[in-house]
Amino acid sequence: MIVVTSIASVAPVRSPLRPQLPGLLSLALASCLAVTTEMLPVGLLPAIGASFGVANSSTGLLVSLYAVLVAALAVPMTHATARFARKPLLLTTLCCYALSNLLVSVAPTFAVVAAGRGLGGLTHALFFSLCIGYVPRLVTGAQVGRALAIATGGASAGLIVGVPLATSVGTALGWRASFGALAALSVLTLVLVAKVLPGVSNAAPTPVYQKRSGRTQLVAVVSSNALTYLGQFTLYTFVSVLFLAAGARPEFVGPLLLLCGICGLAGLGYAAGMVDRRPRRTTFALLTTAIAAVLAVGVGFPLLVPVIVAAAVWNGAFGGVASVFQAAAVRTHAVNPELAGAWVNASANTGIAGGAAIGAGFLPLIGLGGLPWVCAAVLGLGLATSMLARRAFPSHL
């Protein structure tokens, strides 16, 4: 286990983006690992449940447990660990991911599986706060948005590549092999991050202004982020069911989700190129595109081709959303970067859990064809909140 010391004595290494690319890419790999760990049970729930004689509904709690723990504990854990050195603490989270996946892979009972997942959720609550907070300590302020898109873009890669590959391993060799392989990859990631990621100081990279305006801006960012994720997951939670209801064959659902993920990388690329120059325009473009595309899903359903095209555009736009809100939260300077990341992390996971619940509640009442309209309405609230917060989402930096 890595020993975490108190306040770091390492001097800040903030510099232009290019010299910090190895460190940022190592954070991207760690982000990929984190999201793969979080979402892997989705594709393996029936196999895990069958091993222990547990119903799929109960096995599904292994996923929701993550979101609840992150939403509840991201901010308190970030507060509690503020005095510890950044890099050793980040490496400790990677150690915990390895232990979490190892526990699941060798679990003799379902209770041990749940304990392993609980450890993963606790780790996840802290990891992304650290990851988001690390970036402003590495690069100059004018490049924070682009650097965040690189470092946390690994989360998209986790959904697009990590989860499908790990699920395929689990399908071919058994679900335990999949988690065992992920535990081994966690150790390799830890070694790589330890080697290439520079150490940084605990001191905030820019002054922290505890002014009402800064706190008001952060509240606006967090509120818009929560509403955006709430709207997104009202529909996205059931996107596989949507494709099937529109006439897709079951074997094509995976490739269709892959298509949506690849389009999400395009949205991430757009955000990376624009968010440091025109934050307001970038936010408006991504959210209005997502809303229009979601409405197109509602209009096109149940015709398969219109649904596929609209879903690709919708998820393409959403791919850049995380970077926009992360950068906006950090730039409020209301709190230190880690705590800003914690609030973004917690609000996103609150939206994920709440969106799934809203979708599940509306589905029996209005059917799949009605969910896109609910999704668009909530996304519209997120857009309105961001556009009203002119200082949090300025036209120029």
Automatic annotation (TrEMBL):
<keyword id="KW-0812">Transmembrane</keyword>
<feature type="transmembrane region" description="Helical">
    <location>
        <begin position="118"/>
        <end position="135"/>
    </location>
</feature>
<feature type="transmembrane region" description="Helical">
    <location>
        <begin position="60"/>
        <end position="77"/>
    </location>
</feature>
<dbReference type="Pfam" id="PF07690">
    <property type="entry name" value="MFS_1"/>
</dbReference>
<dbReference type="InterPro" id="IPR036259">
    <property type="entry name" value="MFS_trans_sf"/>
</dbReference>
<feature type="transmembrane region" description="Helical">
    <location>
        <begin position="218"/>
        <end position="246"/>
    </location>
</feature>
<dbReference type="InterPro" id="IPR050189">
    <property type="entry name" value="MFS_Efflux_Transporters"/>
</dbReference>
<dbReference type="GO" id="GO:0005886">
    <property type="term" value="C:plasma membrane"/>
</dbReference>
<feature type="transmembrane region" description="Helical">
    <location>
        <begin position="173"/>
        <end position="197"/>
    </location>
</feature>
<keyword id="KW-0472">Membrane</keyword>
<feature type="transmembrane region" description="Helical">
    <location>
        <begin position="252"/>
        <end position="272"/>
    </location>
</feature>
<dbReference type="InterPro" id="IPR011701">
    <property type="entry name" value="MFS"/>
</dbReference>
<feature type="transmembrane region" description="Helical">
    <location>
        <begin position="89"/>
        <end position="112"/>
    </location>
</feature>
<feature type="transmembrane region" description="Helical">
    <location>
        <begin position="284"/>
        <end position="305"/>
    </location>
</feature>
<dbReference type="GO" id="GO:0022857">
    <property type="term" value="F:transmembrane transporter activity"/>
</dbReference>
<feature type="transmembrane region" description="Helical">
    <location>
        <begin position="147"/>
        <end position="167"/>
    </location>
</feature>
<keyword id="KW-1133">Transmembrane helix</keyword>
<feature type="transmembrane region" description="Helical">
    <location>
        <begin position="342"/>
        <end position="365"/>
    </location>
</feature>
<protein>
    <submittedName>
        <fullName>MFS transporter</fullName>
    </submittedName>
</protein>
<feature type="transmembrane region" description="Helical">
    <location>
        <begin position="311"/>
        <end position="330"/>
    </location>
</feature>
<feature type="domain" description="Major facilitator superfamily (MFS) profile">
    <location>
        <begin position="23"/>
        <end position="394"/>
    </location>
</feature>
<feature type="transmembrane region" description="Helical">
    <location>
        <begin position="24"/>
        <end position="48"/>
    </location>
</feature>
<dbReference type="InterPro" id="IPR020846">
    <property type="entry name" value="MFS_dom"/>
</dbReference>
<keyword id="KW-1003">Cell membrane</keyword>
<feature type="transmembrane region" description="Helical">
    <location>
        <begin position="371"/>
        <end position="389"/>
    </location>
</feature>
